[in-house]
Amino acid sequence: MPNPTKSPNCPxxxxxxxxxxxxxxxxxxxxxxxxxxxLSLSLSLSLSGSVSRARWRPRLLLTSIGGRLPLSPAxxxxxxPPLDQQExxxxxxxxxxFTEGPQPMxxxxxxxxxxxxxxxxxxxxxxxxxxxxxxxxRLNTKKLYSDVFVVGGYRWxxxxxxxxxxxDHLSMYLDVADSGTLPxxxxxxxxFSLTVVNQLQQKCSIRKETQHQFNxxxxxxxxxxxxxxxxxxxxGRGYLVNDICIVEADVAVRKIMDYWSHDSKKxxxxxxxxxxxxxxxxxxxxxxxxxxxxxxxAVYHMPTTENDMPSGSIPLALQSLFYKLQYSxxxxxxxxxxxSFGWDTYDSFMQHDVQELNRVLSEKLExxxxxxxxxxxxxQLFEGHHMNYIECINVxxxxxxxxxxxxxxxxxxxxxxxxxxxxKYVEVESLEGDNKYHAEQHGLQDAKKGVLFIDFPPVLxxxxxxxxxxxxxxxxxxxxxxxxxxxxxxxxxxxxxxLSPDADRSIRNLYxxxxxxxxxxxxxxxxxxxxxxxxxxxxxxxxDDERVTKEDVKRALExxxxxxxxxxxxxxxxxxxxFKFTKYSNAYMLVYIRESDKEKxxxxxxxxxxxxxxxxxxxxxxxxxEQKRKEKSEAHLYTIIKVARSEDLxxxxxxxxxxxxxxxxxxxxxxxxxxxxxxxxxxEVAKEFGVPVQCQRFWLWAKRQNHTYRPNRPLTPQEESQxxxxxxxxxxxxxxxELKLFLEVELGPDLRPIAPxxxxxxxxxxxxxxxxxxKEELRYIGRLFVKGSGKPMEILTKLNEMAGYAPEQEIELxxxxxxxxxxxxxxxxxxxxxxSSQLEDGDIVCFQKPPPGSGQPCRYxxxxxxxxxxxxxxVVRFRSLEKPKEDEFSLELSxxxxxxxxxxxxxxxxxxxxxxxxxxxxxxxxxxxxxxQPIKYRGVDHxxxxxxxxxxxxxxxxxxxxxxxxxxxxxxKTLKVAFHHATKDEVVIHTIRLPKxxxxxxxxxxxxxxxxxxxxxxxxxxxxxxxxxxxKIFPPGEKIENINDQYWTLRAEEVSFFYALNSNVHDQIxxxxxxxxxx
Length: 1079
Hints:
19% of the residues lie in helices and 31% in strands. By secondary structure, the protein is of the alpha+beta class. The N terminus and C terminus are likely disordered.
């Protein structure tokens, strides 16, 4: 083979760039290139990068066939396997500097690739780039870029925010390094992972992966909340060693696929479901249920009425969804269904548990089907029964309990296939020794315990336990082990080993696979999709949100087993070990249909099964949708004109608004063809408002630099002779969406419209608001033309007349200048000309009587103080933290109120003497729940800070009344300890409060004063328990500040005699009041 071309960036080039020669001196060090070859460059190089998911094949071929990849000096191309790090993150966002909120984008990986074409030159180029950062904790820059590296012919770099992008996490992104110089319309697609390497334990490295189509608008993509800063900067964790942080990026560049050109209906006959943000898990389940025709028919036959609303009725929402899936030509939305669940927008952006959703949905439908023609359908389809038994060995005693199930949870870890899981499910457990069974009338007996199946349902749903808790890492992990499942499942195998003696052996329990639901990703995020064969034919279909494609049986079965995939060696002549990587896409739920029932279940469903009112409703919806589509397609031919009148100002000011003049969203709108002459539009206005064309004068609105919006100038005759479209282009170059006008109408003595008065350059149009300090009322009273050279004192009599005051009433004038970010309202000198006071067309003048004297006290004596009050006014709804849905009251407060101001007013309302015992908790606008942590005492400056949740503002706070002052409580550590009595079968929860520097011994001493001991000298111990297993025994000297009782149970008990005799307790089996665990 010919030698690879020497890239100008390659360290083997004759002239290496200066930044390469100096890289070891720089503050940011980079590792060099590692080649998997001998010294001669005449051999092709096979370089491997890291792996993200099964489809991402981590190889980079630098051969004369596939082309050569330019190498950066900052790139490490590794041949070693990737870190065993599975966790993903659903927070995938461009790095734009923002106030972070829930990031509703889920990781949506591409499908896995087959291994047959592993050596194809079309494989995506991929590489690993390693970035070593010195003096990390001393970085004082907000964001930091790595050196540029090249993958797939594209220039990339890593972007990090060492102190977080406005969050308490490290923020990290992959960035297109040359985005500013690329041609218009550029885009590139890459799958990539970012890793912070744990330099002490590689398995604890944090690695997150995603994919993105980069373009000019989104030139970087990644993770705003990559890892907690507290973990990163903790030197004991291993992420920062000698103040060095090592970051890796594995990048695979792929060809851009035209996702949107695929017509699922045309290609497959089926349509997909739209993703609301993170609802792919729900979409895969709904497609599976829809493709069980007997279930779909039963849903159609559930009684609903034409008066029901889909958003308030799960049956109607599901009927509507299934109808659209059956008859629509495009993908179907699920918003009505999720609303019927009672979900808000936030819930749709959270990945819920699929099994829980399946059970809740089944229970809801089962309940709704009661008393109808389809009652019992859920049970008939999905319900099976098993028998739990305990049988004594030495005496004639057996205890049995029959239980029903809608799905079965099967172990994956330690099981090679479904049959091994069923073997484990019915495995007999021996109860002997300290674990003997207490049989009635026989006392403690040796026994055997197990489960056997009485009957299986026609539709068997198997939930594979892909997720479990890892005690060593103190986190949930995903089990990606290989796990096989057959196309046909025989549960009568080995003479019915899974069946109980009471089972009906005449029923043949032979099942055929109908659906495979897949999860691709890690424990914290990922993507869900389903492989289904709707008619149980050989043809499989992949339902991936909106996209439906035809697939073969290998893709649906073998490639969803999980486990590891081995890539063929690219250089067979060498003894290098084969490259293996974990497949992160694997089955998590299987649906089987019993052979003997498939004719009944895979039945025909047509329009006669659908209620007439539903067909009419959905046909009307389709017509409305088509009309909206038509309007949208013709939108470029029309202009929206919003016309504000004095009547709108009179209606809105002092009620809906206080600042500026009008809310344009609440005025009359006209949808007018752009080509219509403006003179014809005036005729439309004449018909609508009863104002003759000759009596109309239109003003253009303008947004000023201080962000106010005011009438700016009247239309000229030349402008009125143009078309509506031309006028819009001229008047609103920045935003062509709509045209906003103010209609000036002059009224004669008989209050009928008259022709507008001639206006000169000297005339100024002013708008007037009247303020009453005693009533705290601001209202619009009219407009006037004044001469620029005139003085305010010349119009005082007219203003008094407009206000209904005596002609000689003294009044004060103020100009309303702006209201954001602060109110600016200044007095007007009545003796200075309007022009000299810088008043112009569209300005607002507020006036009032002089402030009342001390005999008539008022809160806001003048216009500026009232507008300040209105601007900062905030009505807050307070809810009890313990009973948020029951106890609520509202208080009018100021956004400028301090923490002490707020708790004082809440305490006064509740009749409490000591406001320091009040504790407040902010509201999560997305989950509509209290935030997990309360507001710290004086932890925020103002009320406005308490109400902000990321980029949303709430009007809700939660309160609780403490038994001690909050400042005192914040100096204490509160623990909830479950005390198990030594001789009585009772558990009492005790709340222990001690200074944060206290020890476990202090907790035990405090607990002794509150509990009843078996004898005065009894000793206690404190345990950390999780799922009935002892995880830790706290030594008496351990500080309590870092003890976490939120996820673990703290258990206190008397030290048993057995425990006291064994000093090396961690090597012993600990018996804890019936709890047995090896620690």
